[in-house]
Amino acid sequence: MKTIARVLLILTLGAAPAWAVLGEYESSVSLDRESMRGEDRVISAQGYKLHQITSPTGAVVTEYVSPEGKVFGVSWRAPVIPNLEQLLGSYITPVRQAAQAQTRRRGGPFIVRASDLVFVSGGHMRGFRGSAYVPSLLPKNVSAEVVR
Amino acid sequence: MRLQRHSVVPLARLLAVLGGLIFVASCGSSSSSTNTTPPPPTTNNSVDLAVNLGPTGDYVNGLFVSVEVCEPGSTTNCTTVPNVLVDTGQSGLRLLSGAVSGLSLPAVTDSSGNDVQECIGFISLAYIWGPVVQADIHLSGETASSASIHIISETPQYPVPSSCIPTGPVGTPEDYNTVSALGANGFLGVENFAQDCGSSCAAASNGIPQYFSCPSGNCQITSVPATATKGQVWNPVALFPQDSNGVLISLPQVAAGGAATSAGSLIFGIATQSNNALGSAQIYAVDDQAFFTTTYNGTQYSGFVDSGSNAYYFLDSGTLGGLDCAAPNTGWYCPAATDSFTVTNTGTNGTSGSVTFTIENADSLFLNTSFAAFNDLGGDSGNSPSTDFFDFGVPFFYNRNVFVGIGGQTVTGVTNAPNGFWAY
Questions:
Q1: B86 in a domain, yes or no?
Q2: pTM
Q3: What pairing do the DSSP bridges indicate for beta strands B378-379 and B312-314?
Q4: For residues B48 and B28, what is the distance between their CA atoms, to the nearest angstrom?
Q5: Which of A49, A87, A146, B377 has the fewest CB atoms within 10 Å, measured from its CB?
Q6: Percent of chain B residues past pLDDT 70, beyond the cut
Q7: What Rg do the C-alpha atoms of chain A give, in angstroms?
Q8: Is there a single domain that holds both residue B19 and residue B99?
Q9: Does B13 score more than 60 pLDDT?
Q10: Residue A99 to residue B124, Cβ atoms within 8 A
């Protein structure tokens, strides 16, 4: 079992552009920690755990991990929007598509409800807030409301 | 240097009362000192604000001003750029390259002598990208001399770095470096921050993907100090020799159902002249990321005021019992009848006060495509209470005097607001 997981991890990391995290295995979190030059604090919660990465510049990125070891959600509170391609991995595609479909909304928050992704991003320069989660990866008995 | 200015405030106010711009050479000091230096002449500190559909003819609730920029030190090599969006959600002057193409503006360089480039990523994945240059900025009688400003390159010299949020190359929908995408000729950012990045960008080792330099064409994050000149892009107001502690945005009421246009004033300084007194406005201090707290139905949310947001963006359709409009106006609110909301804003200084606003059906409002001003336009801010917040956009500004206090500056009568404040 462990071996399979490891093989899968290597395959995934090999195939994706280095930084994929949402929907990937927990080990990919360390790549975010490195890129943020941050401290990683692991916190256990009922039915899941989270990695809270705090950078010296005041950015906080939280990654929510299921008992199966997959990242089912990410959130951020940061002076600069984190690198979403890195954080969302392949889930960046529906976000990109939705960005092109906005009507008359200007300068406000950006919300995407795709088939298997909920993405929210808002705030202002030097104060950004956002999150994303994959409904199908939510652990049993864990509400999406924990991703905040 | 700001403290010195602070000490002349009562005189400036007195002068203004005595007759605005008239020379009051013989005005005696009201204090007991006998040899005070002559008071400075009262500066014209107000520019016209216009709400209209903007240069692309489809901008709803955009606040536009004209900005004059000159080559540093020149009074003749200047150009006036119209339709610049006033944005209290960012700091700095950013202009499309085409709007200043007649000027020769010197580059800001990093410590290695390489030209500094800047990338600003927007929430919607869009970005603007181009060089940081120096210019004199003139707004009414106010001048920011040799200010660092951001040029939004319509034809970029270097490809945008991939580290600047997910970006598509030139010509993709994420490329906002055109008037048609921006809906404006640029931004006049007058947020609570004096600089657009601060200490984080002063050291490239922090890895903030905002300031770059491109020796041999390969753009890398570079260190740019937060200094007033030859450094980061500043909120121009913070660079004025006077009236530098913030702005006042004043707009009249808009009728229910909207209006074709609206007009008001962007006034520089807070409690520095007769036209920018705080009066009965309450001070809501913000945290280090410029948020206060908004409470609705007993739940606390992050709140902020943003003239760069063109509506009240708050809560979400599910929480509000299905207020979402049908396509294509998904994300806007479409109540069957006018809906009223009351929330409480609380500053970090403990000030608390309620705000009531109304939301009308966006489908109905948008039927009149010649209207640009709506005081009752709303849309969602998140997907559920855990991700929702309150973004008080342009509708909040109608029928109000809204003050934006810049962090680190002194304002007479304001305490406990080290990161700046909102007052209304």
A1: yes
A2: 0.89
A3: parallel
A4: 33
A5: A49
A6: 90
A7: 15
A8: no
A9: no
A10: yes
Location of structure tokens 């240069």? B55
Co-location of B201 and B101 in the same domain: yes
B84 plus B112 within the same structural domain: yes
Residue B388: closest CA among chain A residues belongs to which residue?
A120
Select from B189, B206, B331 the Cβ nearest to the Cβ of A111.
Answer: B331
* pLDDT at site A12: 34
Do B54 and B125 share a domain, yes or no?
yes
Selecting from A58, A125, A129 the residue whose C-beta is nearest the C-beta of B189 gives A125
Q: Looking at the structure, do residues B338 and B193 belong to the same domain, yes or no?
A: no
- List the beta bridge partners of residue B292: B303
Strand, helix or coil for residue B275 = helix
Q: Please compute Rg for chain B using Cα positions.
A: 22
CA angle, B117 then B121 then B122, to 5°: 145
In a domain, B247, yes or no: no
Q: What is the pLDDT of residues B17-56, one digit of tens each?
A: 444 333 333 333 344 444 555 555 689 999 999 999 999 9
Distance of CA B62 to the CA centre of its chain: 12
Q: Computed from CA positions of residues B20, B25, B28, B33, in that sequence, does the dihedral angle turn out positive or negative?
A: positive
DSSP letter for each residue of B343-361: EEEE-TTS-EEEEEEEE--
Q: Which domain holds residue B24?
A: 1-42
Shared domain check, B6 and B139: no
Confidence of residue B76 (pLDDT cuts 50, 70, 90): very high
B387 and A79 within 8 Å at the Cβ level: the answer is no
Cα distance from B173 to chain A (closest Cα, Å)? 7
B77 and B224 inside one domain:
yes
Mean model confidence pLDDT for chain B: 91
CA angle B220, A86, B215 (to 5 degrees): 10
Query: What's the CA gap between A63 and A87, in Å, rounded?
Result: 9
Q: Which residues of B103-139 are buried (b: 16+ CB within 10 A; e: fewer)?
A: bebeebebeeebbbbbbbbbbbbbbbbbbbbbbbbbb
List the beta bridge partners of residue B359.
Answer: B339
Q: What is the pLDDT of residue B115?
A: 98
Q: Which of helix, strand or coil describes residue B68?
A: strand
What span, in angstroms and rounded, lies between the C-alpha atoms of B119 and B312? 27
With 0-12 / 13-18 / 19 or more C-beta atoms within 10 angstroms meaning exposed / middle / buried, residue B304 is: buried
Q: ipTM of the predicted structure?
A: 0.88
What are the CA-CA distances from residue B219 to residues B25, B159, B164 (Å)?
55, 8, 11
Rounded CA gap, B65 and B264, in Å? 10
Same domain, B97 and B12: no
Residue-wise pLDDT for A33-43, tens only, equals 777 778 889 99
Instruction: Give how far B160 is from chain A: nearest CA, Å.
Output: 14
A111 and chain B in contact, CB less than 8 A: yes
Please tell me the distance from the alpha carbon of residue A11 to that of residue B187, in angstroms, as a whole number. 45
Both tokens assigned to B412: 């007479």
Whole-number Cα distances in Å, B104 to A76, B65, B154, B362, B396: 40, 23, 16, 44, 39
Domain count, chain B: 3
How large is the average pLDDT for residues B377-385?
Answer: 97
